[in-house]
Specification:
Layout: H1 2-15, E1 18-22, H2 41-53, E2 63-73, E3 77-78, E4 89-90, E5 98-107, E6 110-120, H3 137-152
Parallel strand pairs: 1-2
Antiparallel strand pairs: 2-5, 3-4, 5-6
Length: 159
């Protein structure tokens, strides 16, 4: 039991290295089903928070990442009235997921990286298929790749 408690505290401490804030989420491009079925804004924000905070386990000890989510545009488009009450989202290569993020990576009191960028991948459907866990697969893959390139590897944005 003591080992379980210790592992739980360690996992929570790792996740605490990433702080997520949603800035004016009611103005996001596409973060909720506006036709009365499917995910609510609260559900989407909860899942995006869980995805981003999970990256904390990959940060070196002593580093902290603060992310402000400025906009969300989920992969696909809603089809009103289809598959009621759950909703239907149709995903195609012209509807990639997109996030606008402002972030600061620090180590102690030293700022390592601070930037604002739009994260998107128009080739998101060309990737080798990964294990599907349900909703937000495309968003999870996009954010995981962005985190690896930008935060873990330290590569600057293209352009």
């Amino acid at each position: 039991m003591l080992l379980t408690l210790a592992l739980s505290l360690w996992a929570h401490a790792a996740a605490a290295q990433v702080a997520v804030r949603f800035i004016e989420p009611e103005r996001y491009t596409d973060a909720e089903n506006r036709f009365g079925s499917g995910l609510t804004l609260r559900g989407t924000l909860g899942e995006v928070r869980r995805i981003i905070e999970g990256f904390g386990r990959d940060l070196p000890p002593g580093r902290t990442l603060a992310i402000d989510v400025l906009d969300i545009d989920l992969a696909g488009v809603e089809r009103p009235g289809a598959n009621v009450p759950f909703g239907l989202r149709v995903v195609s290569d012209i509807t990639p997921p997109r996030f606008r993020l402002r972030y600061v990576l620090t180590e102690g009191r030293r700022r390592l990286v601070a930037a604002e960028e739009t994260v998107a991948d128009i080739n998101f459907l060309l990737r080798a298929p990964r294990f599907s866990s349900g909703t937000f697969d495309h968003e999870r893959d996009l954010l995981r790749d962005w985190f690896r390139r930008r935060i873990v590897e330290g590569r600057p944005p293209a352009g």
